[in-house]
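Example record

The entry below shows one chain as it appears in the dataset: sequence first, then structure tokens.
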Amino acid sequence: MQFLDDSLLPENQQPLVIQVAPFGPQFLPEDSDDIPVTLDEQIQKAVDCYNAGATVLHVHCREADGKGSKRISRFNETLARLRDAVPDMLLQVGGSISFAPEGEGADAKWLSDDTRHMLAELSPKPDQVTIAINTNQMNVTELLTAEDCGNTTLGQPAYFGAYKEMTIPSGPAFVEEHLKRLQAAGIQPHFMLGDVGQLETVERYIRRGHYTGPVVLNWVAIGGGADGPNPRNMMEFINRCPEGAILTIEALMRNVLPLTTMAIAMGLHTRVGIEDNLWGKKGELMSSVQQVEQQVRIARELHREVATGAQAKAIYKIGEHYNSVDETLAKVGYAPNRPAGVRGVPLRLAA
């Protein structure tokens, strides 16, 4: 991504799209009074976040006992209710479905490939399903402090240990098939990327024809197999993103606020919510709605517009699809593939 002399002026920036992840599948209801359990509570939480200024909802579901739901029927029911309650909100289903341990000492893990592929069959269909790239460690505990865990479930040794050993199963066979199914269903993949290497893999999927659509993605700075919250990491990732990418900054716990503040100033987009962060000041709980409101305040102080639902869908290019590899590369901002026998400088420069 390039920054011109006037790129930091708010009148030249896109309206801020705020993603919110208010359902926090790794936490249990006793961990926070901000965790919605019943379906009515989950829908109301979405409404409250939308009214606060969020226009993208990261969707997970819970069962009546408060545990994360793994039932596709539960997702269908939730999405139908959400379409009625927040029709202008962009609905983004978390591709992990639920990675919380099933019981004491159990592993924290993502569901099977076959189950995750069923997200392409959701009805009503969401606007997006998130997709991780490359099988990788996802040790979110690496950045957690004792204060971060507080008195939550993550502070329990067995539960903490389960997350310490968690991995993301997202190898080539899964990704290629998942991209195929999502595109066939008219659902936009939202790429969740932890480092430049994963971004390079996305580029290769595009160059080889596995994906022909907009590149909408999060830089996920959660450590433990992904980049940590070092601003140099963030700037390197930004530098490597193509011009046509839509980039949101995501982090973990109290690193969320400083990194998203930088993102707002730079014209990027942000993600907040209790799935990522429980805290305001050290030791003070902060709800998802309060986190959204804080993002809106910061944007207003910087004189940057906050996106409406319609603007968010336009910025994310929902419903846009390209007809060829060449068109995709051009729209996203990558150099074209090299034709056989052509040598020398990058083709876009030589044209």
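Notes for this example: The CA atoms of residues 335 and 349 lie 9 Å apart. The two ends are 21 Å apart (CA to CA).
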